[in-house]
Amino acid sequence: MEKHAIEIGGELIRFQLRRSQRKTMGISVSPDQAVVVSAPENADFADIESRVRKKAGWILDKQAEFATRSVEATPRQFKPGETFLHLGQQYRLRVDPDRVGVVREGSRIIVGAIQPNEADRIRNRLVRWYMKEARQHLPAALERCLPGFRKEVERKPKLLIRPIKMRWGSYISATHTLILNRSLVQVSPPLIDYVVAHELAHVGYCDHGPAFTANLTEKMPDWRTRKRALEKLGPELFDAPILR
After folding, report:
1. Does 69 score more than 80 pLDDT?
2. Global pTM?
3. If we measure between CA atoms, which residue out of 170, 176, 187, 172 comes closest to residue 234?
4. Distance between CA 187 and CA 164 in Å, rounded?
5. Per-residue H/E/C for the chain
6. DSSP β-ladder status, 89-96 and 102-105
7. What is the pLDDT of residues 32-55, one digit of tens each?
């Protein structure tokens, strides 16, 4: 592979160029922060450089994400005393066979009608409870963020809350649908708002180019701080997405 470097806005982006029989151009960033550009055999280097410049913001964000990502947390055992988050607040897990359902009570999340040694059942109860909580609380984030995007978003998108394995959210332009990861209900409202704002910005811009970044920065000037906080918190969350 060829090795190249381009300076963009004072930042030096080094990348490896891999040419092949493919018809389109692609850029990837690996966990070691290495950048690989895959391009057709006959692609002009000027076009390749233009693509790298257009994706510079995304490349630097991904490198920063991998650089600051904390070590993965110890796998959960779903035993009494473990900590779980809800809207940014920390709670201790309590299992009470004499209670019914799952509730927040004081500094505890209480799972009832189950034995403390039934880890799989405890996990399943928490999955269902977090989905219920997400459906209750996440729509408010859309209502908070939407007024700032009235110019770009003429009508409120349909909101779906789903378990998503590899991202926090997604905007589907074909159906004007915003999909949010149910795991977001574990983090604080400002971090939820960041994900919603990020996806609403995609209504006008399908990629992460300079225009997208400028628009998001105008709407939420501190979005990078919120993004870093979410990335750092991710490994501590229950059932969080595995970001690539």
Report:
1. no
2. 0.72
3. 187
4. 16
5. CEEEEEEECCEEEEEEEEEECCCCCEEEECCCCCEEEEEECCCCHHHHHHHHHHCHHHHHHHHHHHHHCCCCCCCCCCCCCCEEEECCEEEEEEEECCCCCEEEECCEEEEECCCCCCHHHHHHHHHHHHHHHHHHHHHHHHHHHHHHHCCCCCCCCEEEEECCCCCCEEEECCCCEEEEEHHHHHCCHHHHHHHHHHHHHCCCCCCCCHHHHHHHHHHCCCHHHHHHHHHHHHHHCCCCCCCC
6. unpaired
7. 678 999 999 999 999 999 999 999
Q: Distance between CA atoms of 26 and 28, rounded to whole angstroms? A: 7
At 80, the amino acid letter reads P
> Maximum distance among all alpha carbons in the chain?
70
Residue 40 corresponds to which tokens in the numbers above?
A: 């057709």
